[in-house]
Structure formats: structure tokens, C-alpha cells
From TrEMBL, chains A, B, C, D:
Protein name per its UniProtKB record: Formyltetrahydrofolate deformylase
Family the UniProt entry places it in: Belongs to the PurU family.
UniProt pathway: Purine metabolism; IMP biosynthesis via de novo pathway; formate from 10-formyl-5,6,7,8-tetrahydrofolate: step 1/1
Organism expressing this protein natively: Bogoriella caseilytica
Domain ACT, chain residue ranges per copy: 7-81
A Pfam family matched in the record: Formyl_trans_N
Coiled coil: none
Taxon lineage: Bacteria, Bacillati, Actinomycetota, Actinomycetes, Micrococcales
BP term (GO), one: 'de novo' IMP biosynthetic process
Reactions the enzyme catalyzes: (6R)-10-formyltetrahydrofolate + H2O = (6S)-5,6,7,8-tetrahydrofolate + formate + H(+)
Amino acid sequence: MPGEHARIMVSGADRSGIVAAVSRVLNEQGGNITALDQHSTDAEGGRFFQRAEFHLPELSERRAALEAALEHTLRPLNMTWRLAEAGSRARVAILASRADHCLMDLLWREQRGELATETTMVISNHTDLAAQVGNFGVPFHHVPVTRETKAEAEAAQLELLRGQVDLVVLARYMQILSGNFLQAVGVPVINIHHSFLPAFMGAGPYQRAKERGVKLIGATAHYVTEDLDEGPIIEQDVERVTHAYSATDLARTGADIERRVLARAVAWHAEDRVFVDGNRTVVFA
Amino acid sequence: MPGEHARIMVSGADRSGIVAAVSRVLNEQGGNITALDQHSTDAEGGRFFQRAEFHLPELSERRAALEAALEHTLRPLNMTWRLAEAGSRARVAILASRADHCLMDLLWREQRGELATETTMVISNHTDLAAQVGNFGVPFHHVPVTRETKAEAEAAQLELLRGQVDLVVLARYMQILSGNFLQAVGVPVINIHHSFLPAFMGAGPYQRAKERGVKLIGATAHYVTEDLDEGPIIEQDVERVTHAYSATDLARTGADIERRVLARAVAWHAEDRVFVDGNRTVVFA
Amino acid sequence: MPGEHARIMVSGADRSGIVAAVSRVLNEQGGNITALDQHSTDAEGGRFFQRAEFHLPELSERRAALEAALEHTLRPLNMTWRLAEAGSRARVAILASRADHCLMDLLWREQRGELATETTMVISNHTDLAAQVGNFGVPFHHVPVTRETKAEAEAAQLELLRGQVDLVVLARYMQILSGNFLQAVGVPVINIHHSFLPAFMGAGPYQRAKERGVKLIGATAHYVTEDLDEGPIIEQDVERVTHAYSATDLARTGADIERRVLARAVAWHAEDRVFVDGNRTVVFA
Amino acid sequence: MPGEHARIMVSGADRSGIVAAVSRVLNEQGGNITALDQHSTDAEGGRFFQRAEFHLPELSERRAALEAALEHTLRPLNMTWRLAEAGSRARVAILASRADHCLMDLLWREQRGELATETTMVISNHTDLAAQVGNFGVPFHHVPVTRETKAEAEAAQLELLRGQVDLVVLARYMQILSGNFLQAVGVPVINIHHSFLPAFMGAGPYQRAKERGVKLIGATAHYVTEDLDEGPIIEQDVERVTHAYSATDLARTGADIERRVLARAVAWHAEDRVFVDGNRTVVFA
């Protein structure tokens, strides 16, 4: 039963005994670990990352005791930890502009039950996608953005988001979010960049890929930081192209890569498979 | 230092507390886990598989005590376990016939230090590859095989292998090993099959792939069992082909896939990343 | 301008001079070849396949003369040929059951302008997908099928299809079409098979892939013939899976492969890039 | 028979009638086109590229007449053209330093008959690879290079190369060739760059890939121009990596990609499948 399955994520400065401590507590509380991934960045002095799935009958009754025991054990070790039930879903806001491919793919995968997400709203600076979003029964908010109104627009977005979401996804949202927004939003923000970073950073990557004559084009899903195109990379993929591809062909191929790379990144994030390690990620996928 | 790094592999019928037990022992003995993969096939009543890398200063002095503690802990749990130092190398015999691509690739990768193997001998039913093997300083044994002499040939092979190897690799060896041989050899045997199993089982897969007009061809590395083409699959890969590929083109493309699939399978096996689970494998790669 | 671009497809028993004959006629009629693919299956006695894109100002006025000249030239050579304007779209009927992924992806790509198709109807033996299809403004016909009513159902389908479509696409349609239907329908039928043929032919391929422990799963788009799972393969693709994938994970991964393989096959067919060569295809993609 | 098969490559400013003109001449001279690829970069005012394979009995006797007819036809159209017999092999010099993987793979593929090349010499600024090259029976020349002696070293290299080769391959050659050398050498030079250009141009790409946390690493084969890392790209490929890859793992994975990307580029060049189009390539592969 879903209610009997959960996972625990632990990270912090590496030291001996963390795996032992966590697994001892789980065992004492009646849990059975069914999948575990652990990675230390160095044999000594590195950072520690662990994700474990476990089975624990009557989890809801025992959860408080389990959490108390974990806190009692892991606080002295200076570890950051978090528990999530297997059936839990991340509340998501998707920001989009006019392009529909990433947005539609996320909504469709969620509807199919492929994503551990619950999209609570779509915010767009255009109205083009309102009907398509409506077909999925998801609230659509139009927040126009111009150079002059950017501050007010971001304030309006934050007002919509406050307390409502665990994750913001930029699904080909064509506005740059300010540092103020990123600090205020208080949840991770995932972006899909339409190139294989760090190649073709910035605007117009498909045109520039065409001009450079590359034989593969790609896309990159990453957490957003104030340094544009520089946040921790979650997932990347590429596809083969040839001299015969027009700019339109490249954009279409790129759209396919974008939607699948973003869907993977969101799926992994929602299942707590992604850990941020400075400007990089550890992904237990 | 290599002498301070090791790994432990544990498997058996799943039950609560195994991760906790192993990590407690490692911790008590001064070890720090730096990478851990664990998989149970079911939440209840499944099979348990774990591989953990750890760092333990003065490992050589402490190894006996560690092993005693592990045995004391894991025997009552009915777990199979094994310890290997990070620098250890599997002693390998490669069996080949006339095709050189898989054999050369393994010898060359070992020479570069890419494989945790030490090829102690090559046995072939032909002499074609003697000089190429000699260039690597590896002993080459010619054991001819005919339908009539198969039993004697296998006896001669077993005589060469006895106590000398931890693994036998069939690198496009074109003879079928008997059930008697497989039982007598006492170590795992890895084969590379020149198709994407279970498509095109048996002989002539490239010709049959051409006739069927498939758009991808592949190769499969698997442990050998008495059921030909049916042993646990370790690794598979494919490559795209077109209508324009001749039978020769298919065989060349196939050779590339074969050598890289076999090299991956041998590398993972030698690093104790592959666990046999009935007729399947669990690969922590 | 689109109206000035067209393509010509030529096929037949190979003989000298066909490329010269076709290109001479195009040149005499004012056309400029901008892309040409040609393949003969053998240097002598093979079959000939050619697809050429060309630019011809005032194509609509000159088309009749061009076609007369082509017929005059190619009929004596026993060649089959066909002309299509670059902007032309194949009229398509999609047959589906309950699974939506392939159907939705085709409708969505067509809406985006990625496919040279015009889906004129969706026919399903269930009503589950009626609303989703309706969102795209495409007529949805419910034709239930039971073992007893199969003949009448096929008759009803044929009645709907007659003269209305250039292509039938089976988008995870879970009924087997009779030989009578295939003969009567008079247009090509493309199916998506949820495995990498010829592995796992027949039913339940994901479960069987799980049981066999394969490391890649795939999908195959093929023209439908009376021999189930045996028609000419248009496109195949695979994705990597691991021991950790549940049957549900395999089915989800498989759905992703299925929709992109089918979309590619339909796109290529609609652009006249696929030629049938006995039980195989020549694909100029 | 090989002596009856040949190919013709044609390129130049696009204009109507070139395909017709070439195929007419081939037909008149008794040739039968068995494979043809043609690409124009634009419908009007673009550049034209064509490669055609044909079968022509008694080619050696008829070659002079065929060439005369082609010249008579194509010179007035300002086309560049070249004829090559199917069995012809490009004479190649490989320049290497200490890394052996690309060099060995090329020599090994040539020995197997996979490449239409004949490596006439290996030139290295180190002696490490002399024995390995000697095993293949290929002359090895040691030309040391220091900052002070670079001009003399290049003169010595040019002396070795003059009139002896059709292609120079830089197989992880760690010296930058001067503009003077590139002008004097008079044949194409192919380089393998150990990253997915234009990401990580310059030195240390694997270390930088590790620092940036990319999820794929790649390699690029390109023609060498005076702008380092900027010549026309022939082929690229990538492989998936994870957070668990050490710098050594990345370099090993990279070596695999490098050798297969370079091998493909050399194979395609030797079969006249690559056309330079400004700073890009047209590859009929």
C-alpha cells in the first residue's frame, strides 16, 4: 500500500557512520529499506548525499516517532534530512509564454500519473495557452510583463505563488526572473534551456547551432540561480541533426528534446532524486 | 591510497535490518562508506542486493577483524557476502576463435588500466591471433576443437584454467561449451552474443537482421548457462542502421557494438557491480 | 513559396538512365532539383528508388505539362512515379482504443504544423478519448467491436474511411484487422508495435521484457500486412532500462518510445520518404 | 567487381540542370547510378553538392572518355568535380603524441579493412608509441617539437609529407600547427577535439566538464583551420556521465567517444562523403 512506503533524503558534510545511523533508526522503527543510493564526493572531507526508500507498515501512526528518532540521531551529526511519503506530490506552478510543448507535456504526463506533481496553477505573460491549459482543469493566470512593469508583474506572480507551491517550473518562459524574485519565491525553480549548455549560452541557440554546423543539438534542465544559464544542471540530452535540417527543423527537433529533458528533471525532482551540490547536482535516477 | 579502499557485496533473501547491520559493522571497524547501492526486488519477500564502497585506514591490518565481524553479523541473517580491495584485479581467461575485435579491445583496455582485470591467458581454437596476443605479453594457448575432439579439448582447457582464473570471457568464441565444462570450470563465464537478444537468437543474426529490415542492430553480453542465448543479461546496446547497409556494413557496425558491450560487462563484473538474480541481473553501474 | 516546391518519387526494377531521364524532364520543364536521394538494391538486377525535391516557378500552371512529360518518359521504363506538392497533406484516420499517448502526440504535432497530415477522423472502439479528441476539433467516431460483431464493425469503419483518407494509423488500436479489411481499405496502414521487433512479438511485451531482464526496451512502427507483427519496418527506437524499473516504469518508458517512433514514421510517410521494398523499407530520412 | 564501381563528387554554385547533366553523361558512357545524394543549400542562389555511386563495366578502359565527357559538360557550368574508383584508398599520415587510443583504433580499423585508407606514416613528437605502431608495419617518424624548434619541426614534417599523403589526421596530437604549415601541407587536416564543440573550447575540457557538472560529454572531429577549434565540424558524439564519474572516468569515457568520432570522420572523408561548405560540412553518410 502506498501509505506504507516512504523515502528519506539526507545530506551534509561527510563523516563516518551516517548510513549506519539512519539505517539503525529505520530498522528500530520497523522499516525495511528497499532501495538506497549514497554518494560521498570524497573519501575524506567531502559532502554526503543519501536517498533511501523504505517500507514501514502503519507509517502514518508511526511517522511522528520515526521523525523524532531521526532528528535525535541526525541533528548531532549536523545532517539535513527530510522524509516524504511515497504517494506525496509536489505542488507545482508552471510559468510559460507562448510555446506550448513543454507545458503541454508536463500537464499531460501529470494527468497520466507519470509525475509525482500536482500543478496548481499556470502563469503566463500571454493568453495564447489559456484554452489548452483549461482543458486540463488547471487554473491559468495571465500576468503580462513589460520592461516597465516587470517589478509589479513579479510581485503579482509572488502573490499567486506564496504558500501554494513547492516548485516553480519555467516551461520556455521567455522572461528573466530577477534576483529579488528568486530570493522571495522560497522554492526551487527549474528552467529548460534550449541548448546543450555550456554551448550556445544565451539567446538564439538553434540559429547559432545552424551557423556553427554542429551535428547534435541539445537541451539542458537546470535550477535557476541569479547567474543566467549557470545554475546546477539536472539533466541534458541531445539528438542528431544534419546539414539538411532547416532552422525550422532544428527548432522542432529541439522542442522534442526540451520537453523530454524537462519532464525528466521535474519527475526526478518531485521524487526527491536530485540533490544540489554547490553548482552541480547529484542525481539518483 | 588504494590500500585503504574496499567494497563489500551482500545478497540474500530480503529481511529488515541488513543495511543497518552491515553499516554498523563497517562503522565500528573504522570504515566510512563513500558509495552505496542497494536494491530489493520486492517490499516484502524479495531478494536483497547491496554493494558498498568504503574507506578504512590501515585496511590490511584490520581486514581480518572486519571479516570476522561481518561473518559474525551476516551469517545469522543468511546473507552471502564478499569483501574486495579497491585495487584487486580479477584473473581472466579469454577464449577466442578468429575474430579479433572483442579480444583486442579487452587486452588494450586492460593495458590502459581501464579494467580491473589481469588476463592470464588467451585460449583459441585457431592460431590466427597468436601474434596479436603476443604483442600484449599475454600467454596464448592453441587448443583445437573438432566435433570428435570436443571432450578432450574441453578437458585441456579446464586443465589450463584450473585455479588460474576468476572469470572466463568468450570473446566471439565460436564453440558451444558443454554443460560439463560449465559445471567444472567453477567461475562465471561471460559471452558476447552478436544480436539484441531475444531477437535473432542463434546463428547468422546480421543476415537475418538484414532480411527482416530492422532499423537498429545490437549486441548482448550475458552470463553463460546451459541454455544457449538464455543466460542472465548483463548489458546490451544498439546502433542505428539503414537500408543502405550491406551485410558487411552490418557486421562492422555490429563488431563495434559487440566490443563496447563486452568491455562494459567485463568492467562491471570485475568491479563487482553485477549480481545474478535468477535469470536476470542487478547491475549497480 | 510553397506552391513552387514539389517532390517526385520514382521506383521500379533498376535499369540504366532513370536518374538521367527524370532529371532531364525536370530541367526541361524549368525545375531545379534541391535535394535528391537515390538507392538501388543491387548494382545489377536490383530495385530502384528515388525521391527528389525540386523548385519550379509557376508550378500550378506547369504541372499538367510536367506530368505529361514524366509519363511519356517513365512509362516506357516501367517505372512507378508520383508527384506531390511540398505543401500537400495526407488525409489520415487514426484508430485508437483506450491508450491516449500515441493519439495525443499525433494530434498535437499536427496542430503545431510538424506533420504533413490532416487528421480527418479518429475511430475508436471505446469512448474514453472522445473529449480529448474533441479538444483538437477532430471528428470522433465510436465503433464498438466484439468478437461477434467484428465483421460489421469493420464494415462500418470502411464506410467511414471510403474515399476520405490516404493513410490509416493504428495508434495503440487493440484490435486485429482482418485480411478483408486490409484489402478493402485501399490505403497504407501504419501500426505501432510496443516492442523492438522481432523480440517479444505478440502480446505482453513489457512483462516479457521484465521477465527476460533486458537492458533496453523499444518500439517498432511498421506497415500492416496480414502477417501480424511481420510487415515492413519503418522505424524503431529503444531506451535504456534497469533492474529497478517496475512493470509500470517499463510501460511508461515504452509509451514515450512508442509515441516518438510512430510520430517519426507518420511524418516520413506523409513526406513520401518511405518506399516499400518487399518486406522491408527504404527510408530517405 | 570493384574495378567496375566508382563515384563522382560534384560541387559549386547551384544552378538548374546539374543533376541532369551529370546523369546524362554517366548514362551515355554506360554507367548505372546505384546511389545518389544531392543537396542544395537554398532553392535559389545556394550551393550545390552531389555524390553519386555508379556501376560501369570496363571502367578502366572507359575512364578517360568518361572524364573527358564530364569535363566537357561540367566546366561550362563552373562545377568542381572529381572521380574516384570504389577500391581507391586515401594515403594518410597520422600525427600523434603520447595518447594511443585514437591512433590504435585507426590502425586497427584499417588493418581490418574498415577504412578506405592506407596509412603511410605516423609522425610523433614522442617515441612512446613507436613499438605499437611498428606492430602494424607502419613507418614511425619521431619529430620532436619544442617552442624553439617548432619551425624546423614543421619543416621536417612537411618534408616527410610532401607528395606522400592525401590526408593528415591529428590523433590527439598535442601541438598546434601553424598557419604556414596548414597552407604548405596542401591536403586536408582532420583533428579530434576532446569536447562537444563549441562547449569547452580550448584546454582541459574534461576537468571543466566535471566542474560544470554536465550530464553528457562529447568529442568533435573537424577540419583544421587557422582558427583553433573553429574549423568545419565533420562529426560529433556524446555519452552520458553522472556525478559519480571521477576525472579519470570522464577521460576514459571521453577516449571512447574520441576514437569512434574520429574513426567515423576519417571513414567518411576517405569515401568522399564529406563536402566543405564554408565553415560547415555537408555529410552524405
